[in-house]
Design goal:
The longest helix has 21 residues. By secondary structure, this protein is an alpha/beta fold. The two termini are 12 Å apart. The chain is built from 13 helices and twelve strands. The protein folds into two domains: 172 residues, Rossmann fold, CATH 3.40.50; 182 residues, Rossmann fold.
């Protein structure tokens, strides 16, 4: 079976985490014996570069879609790829489109993304099959678009256990490489500094936690990994709250370095407020390293977090509840923390890339039956 993978997000050497799950699904399909060709875009910084990249991308999608003998067009991110695919479908009605929807595809995060919604709906209606990362997102698609197109669930490429795994023996070396104080305990965050990611709620909550528990100031640090449009606001808030020496920031990291962060921290905090949080793969990656998470009670996170059993939840957008949950976490015994960490690890194994890759293969083989 020959597949054309279409995406406006694909990792590059400069931005290795940008759309890495798209590359993961490509690797899965290749491992399962599918022939995969690509029409993808890597990240650009300058607006002029983005415009040129998208124009070239759209032309490439049309050229390959019209001339290539593909059994399916597999698209990640409906919003930014709908235009060329709808035109392709008009020019070549026999083409079969598999649309994998994520995040802002269905729940726009900013007003400028709303304009894509009519095209997203039309693309989903004209797709042969829709793939969503979670049960939550499947229901969201049904509720919003009332499509009759079959919907399958596949968790965004899953977790690469060759990268994300418990590695306690390397912790001291990792601390030294990152110039971190080995006498401190660390909480962590990984995500863009962008709207809806909750980085601001985390800073406010962590600051209040320290104020209410003064002894923690000398022994607890927060590592925040990521960059985005809100970088300036992040640094300003960190300074205003007096956290410059307490909140350690790293820019975007490669997956191997993220795995080191997950192994260094004892608790991963996932403060997203996005209704469109279609799965939350970073949470699963942390859990795969044996690190439990404290996450917002929202979105696809609810597919895998059982509050108090394999991790913990707090009310999305309410930093006061985050403080309350951090204090409850602090009261747990070491044995209780280890029990939750073990359950978190076991849960993440259900999303292991090697275990779930046959699910994606099965979805594409269903497509063959529609011929």
């Amino acid at each position: 079976m020959k597949i054309l993978l279409v995406s406006n997000m694909y990792p590059s050497e400069e931005f290795p985490s940008f759309g890495v799950f798209v590359k993961n699904t490509e690797a899965i399909l290749t491992d399962e014996g599918f022939i995969v060709d690509k029409a993808v875009v890597t990240k650009s910084i300058k607006k002029s570069q983005k415009i040129a990249a998208y124009l070239g991308h759209y032309a490439n999608v049309l050229r390959k879609g019209l001339t290539g003998n593909y059994d399916a067009i597999y698209v990640h991110y409906a919003a930014h790829n709908a235009f060329p695919l709808l035109l392709l479908k008009k020019l070549k009605p026999s083409v079969k489109i598999m649309t994998n929807v994520h995040g802002s595809d269905v729940v726009p995060e900013v007003a400028s993304q709303e304009k894509f919604q009519p095209y997203v709906k039309k693309l989903l209606q004209q797709s042969t099959m829709i793939i969503t990362p979670s049960h939550y997102y499947k229901e969201l698609v049904h509720e919003k678009y009332a499509v009759t197109t079959p919907i399958e669930i596949f968790p965004s490429g899953g977790v690469n256990s060759a990268v994300f795994y418990p590695n306690p023996g390397a912790r001291q070396r990792q601390l030294e490489q990152l110039a971190l104080d080995s006498t401190m305990r660390y909480f962590g965050y990984v995500g863009r500094m962008d709207v809806g990611k909750g980085w601001d709620h985390l800073l406010k909550g962590f600051s209040a936690f320290l104020e209410q528990n003064p002894a923690e100031k000398s022994k607890t640090r927060l590592i925040m990994v990521g960059s985005g449009k809100d970088d300036d606001a992040f640094f300003q808030m960190r300074s205003d709250l007096g956290l410059d020496d307490i909140v350690v920031h790293f820019p975007l990291m490669k997956h191997q370095d993220l795995a080191a962060i997950y192994n260094i921290i004892e608790l991963f905090i996932f403060p997203t407020t996005r209704k469109g949080e279609s799965l939350g793969l970073v949470g699963l990656e942390a859990m795969a390293c044996g690190t439990p998470i404290l996450a917002s009670r929202i979105g696809g996170i609810l597919d895998y977090v059982q509050d108090g059993a394999n991790s913990w939840l707090f009310t999305a957008g309410e930093w006061e509840d985050l403080v309350k949950q951090l204090e409850l976490y602090n009261q747990l015994t070491m044995e209780e923390k280890q029990q939750i960490a073990k359950a978190a690890y076991e849960t993440a194994q259900n999303y292991d890339q090697r275990k779930i890759q046959s699910k994606l293969s099965a979805i594409f083989h269903k497509l063959e039956l529609t011929k």
